[in-house]
Amino acid sequence: MAHAIILMNLGTPAEPTPSAVRQFLREFLSDPRVVEIPRPVWKLILNLFVLPLRPARIAPAYQEIWNHGLDGEAVTGSPITYYTQRQVALLQQRFNDAGQRASVSGDVQKKEKQEIIVAHAMTYGAPNLADTVARLQQDGVSGFTVLPLYPQYSATTTGAIYDQVAKIIRASRNVPDISVVHDYWQHPLYIEALANSVREHRERNGAAEKLLMSFHGIPKANTRKGDPYYQQCCGTAERLAAALELPRDKWEITFQSRFGKAEWLQPYTDKTLVEWGQSGVGSVDVICPAFAADCLETLEEIAVENRANFIDAGGREYRYIPALNARIDHLAAIEAIVREKMPAGICG
Ligand SMILES: C=CC1=C(C)c2cc3[nH]c(cc4nc(cc5[nH]c(cc1n2)c(C)c5CCC(=O)O)C(CCC(=O)O)=C4C)c(C)c3C=C
Ligand SMILES: [Fe+2]
Ligand SMILES: [Fe+2]
Q1: Pocket test for ligand 1, best of 12, 67, 297, 305 (most atoms within 8 A of CB)
Q2: Do residues 50 and 150 share a domain?
Q3: Whose alpha carbon is nearest atom 19 of ligand 1?
Q4: Ligand 1 near 295 CB (within 6 A)
Q5: What stretch of H or E contains 115?
Q6: Residue 133, ligand 1, Cβ within 6 A
Q7: Among all ligands shown, which has an atom nearest to the Cα of 216?
Q8: Which of 225, 228, 236, 330 is the most exposed place for a label (fewest CB within 10 A)?
């Protein structure tokens, strides 16, 4: 008997080409969890405007981040996949080491010990969750703990993963023993890892005048309808600021990656940086706590596009603090979050 931990993130195109980006966006943007516009209207917009035009515009940005790492990391392929695979390998190692320690100390009888297998899946693109679960079942896995790598719950991200789990359950006669972590926006080890990353960054570069915490946005209407994402982002930001003992005028929370014409969560990251540059803020550190791995939205939109927004508006120094990626304290947080969700009695 074995138990599997599946780390999930959003996904990415198979290649940085317009046709692969189109294929990825078609799957992603067809999910009613992501875009809530009535289906017939959205289908028209998607097929007439978004899919014919956006891939050619976005593919060059994907080309820039492909094989691109921060701090000298030798990233291959799309960074989000690379870092998720690193997280899988390091988490597997942690469970193997813990299992070995338990065997040596005699805590676990050999016959009781369950093998823990760590894998990853992407909500869109490859590898998908259904194929991953089926493959693991063939390898003898009977129980699953799914960790959406989204610290803050949103129906657009974590909700979409619950849908995919529900689909697997609906299609099963002997339904798998499967549980999903709902959120971890206030987990002390997650907050500690974020705070450590800011502290280390400041030790190397000095502290900027302001710390900007930029979260991926969602439409404002989703919050009005009950999506807790906004409140959870604010909760993470306040806890991070408290851990760093930052006075309120030294940090700000903003929302990035607006898509379409509707109003999204505010303040917007790009507008804030322009305002700061124009109003004499000289230096800014930017962290993106909602992203467990660096990806297009951090490496391009934050580290490149928004740097230009700030500098062009008069800002002097702009520093992006990398996502938690494969940091040891991030893996410690992930391990703790998963262990808290795993059924009692499973050890590894
Ligand atoms: C259309 C609406 C979108 C919503 C709602 C949305 C929410 C959301 N997304 C992430 C995390 C990521 N998004 C990424 C890329 C991306 N996101 C959207 C749109 C929405 N996201 C698009 C169209 C794209 C693709 C790029 C583009 O065309 O602009 C990624 C990066 C993937 C990669 O390949 O690197 C991540 C990660 C969160 C956390 C979130 C809501 C909380
Ligand atoms: Fe997104
Ligand atoms: Fe974006």
Answers
A1: 297
A2: yes
A3: 259
A4: yes
A5: strand 115-122
A6: no
A7: 1
A8: 225
Given this model, what pLDDT does residue 156 score?
98
Nearest CA to ligand 1 atom 29: 58
pLDDT the model gives residue 1? 82
Both 17 and 94 in one domain: the answer is yes
Whole-number Å distance, alpha carbon 247 to ligand 2 midpoint, is: 30
Low-confidence ranges of the chain (pLDDT < 50): 111
**Measured in angstroms, how far is the CA atom of residue 66 from the centroid of ligand 3?**
15
Q: Report pLDDT for 72.
A: 82
| 0.90 exceeded by pTM | yes
- Report pLDDT for 109: 55
Q: 144 and 90, same structural domain? A: yes
Between CA 191 and CA 237 the distance in angstroms is: 9
Tokens of 250: 């030294």
Tell me the best of 296, 324, 325 to mutate to test the pocket of ligand 1, counting ligand atoms within 8 Å of each CB and taking the most.
296
Predicted pLDDT of residue 70:
84
Q: Which helix (H) or strand (E) holds 1?
A: none
Q: How many domains does the chain have?
A: 2
By C-alpha distance, which of 27, 16, 218, 12 is closest to 122? Answer: 12
Q: Cβ–Cβ contacts within 10 Å for residue 231, how many?
A: 13
Are 120 and 80 in contact, with CB atoms under 8 Å apart? no
CA distance 20 to 77: 13
Q: Is 299 found in the same domain as 193?
A: yes
As a residue count, the chain comes to 348
At 345 the pLDDT is: 77
Same domain, 180 and 208: no
- Please state, as a whole number, how many other Cβ atoms lie within 10 Å of the Cβ of residue 180: 18
